[in-house]
Amino acid sequence: MGRSELYYLLTMGKQRGGRGENIRFKNRKEKIRWGRFCLIAVLLYIAALTIPYVQHKKVSDHYKKQFDPQECYSEEPGKERAAYITDNTEALEYRLKMIREAKEEVIVSTFDFNADTGGKDVMSALIEAAHRNVHVRLIVDGISGFLDMLGDPYFQALASTENIEVKVYNPVNLLKPWTMQARLHDKYVITDSSMYLLGGRNTTNLFLGDYGKHQNIDKEIFIYAKEGESASLKQLKAYFERVWELSDSKEYRCKKKTDRVQNSLKELEERYPKLEALYPDILKTWDWEARTVETAKVTLLSNPIEAKNKEPHMWYSVNQLLQTGKNTVICTPYIICGKEMYADLKNTCEQGTNVEIITNDVSSGANPWGCTDYLNQKEKIWATGVQVHEYLGPHSNHTKAVLIDDRLSIVGSYNLDMRSTYQDTELMLAIDSEALSAELREEIDRDKTYSRTMTDSGEYHYEENYHPREMSTEKKIFYAVLRVITIPIRRFL
Prior knowledge:
Number of helices: 15
Strand order of the largest sheet: 9-4-3-2-5-6-8-1-10
Radius of gyration: 28 Å
Helix content: 40-55%
Strand content: 15-25%
Shape: globular
Structural class: alpha/beta
Largest sheet: 9 strands, mixed
Number of strands: 22
Distance between the termini: 76 Å
């Protein structure tokens, strides 16, 4: 091979090598460019999801003038009677009995509805009522509907049944992320014009029946009016109709009655006779008056209903009511307060109201976000002047209730957190009844015995039934990581 040929081969090799390097360099630049584009797209999506809710709204002067806490009290006996439902099996039986006795209408609103055993029990009862020409309307939260109902044959069977209408509040729309923070957190059942059940229970095994080892403790109020439609029932029905007619509430349909859907419908229809055998009390005549206690007044408290950043009507109302008492207790599964809520609690304590809070001990809380935020924020909570009882009982406590002195009980769906305050629909009943308050007081005193409390010296005082539960190493690590993650996103938890 001559020198010229050797030079040619070497030169071409370098050129080819250079072109290869250029291609690899261009590919790297392309990947970096696409990576940046994807990162920007993700950040923009997160911004669209969160920015509309970053600025907390304040309560308007109009609502402040409209709400008078003294109107939740009455010196005269009222027409409505109330029962305090504390047991999960009892809660399921009440639903089955109420639906069984319905002659014209059943309304159900729920945050979460699963096609598990308890959920199927309720579906079966609704279908049996529909077959008796009772008009049934059901509304479920959008994200829960997306996770649990989308394409599910049991919910398709329910929606395909004549006399049953199903809607989803604020369905998931990935093209409109700014709408997805607002959720339907209301939980109630209305039958005809005489009775309803309202509280914090979802329609799942965790809250209804005795179908598994894992359960959540929760509370509801049953309201019964012997003569005619009660005032609070009128309020609740009007509230439901407003939510039902919202453009944010979309119809859930059975697209096709497939074999799976028909088989599911048949299973639900055949389930009802088994329920009668499993819960024979629903076949008996219930003395509603004997099951309930007298009330002076029952008032419905609510948040705005539109799927957007909300004025904190519920928190304002509850805080105003706290100031009508001297000794008050708040029961909440977890505490995630913003600076405005801290300021309100501090102001209420400084005005002379003794405020206690019962919340889940971190080692037993069912909401890891709430538990880790409490670890980060507990000094700020204590600094407001409230006394916190960290509850560690047999099950995680999902109760949302307030007791004011020995007269006013407030029970419903509202958690002491920013989501319930500014983002979700929420309902609470304010019941002026010494008899009902006595039941709530008895339960609160019992829960305190399963709690520990921080003393003024900075050390914990352990009540007689509080037995520390050691967290596993894995859980400790998990909480340590989550404590960092929650800091920038805590107002959206």
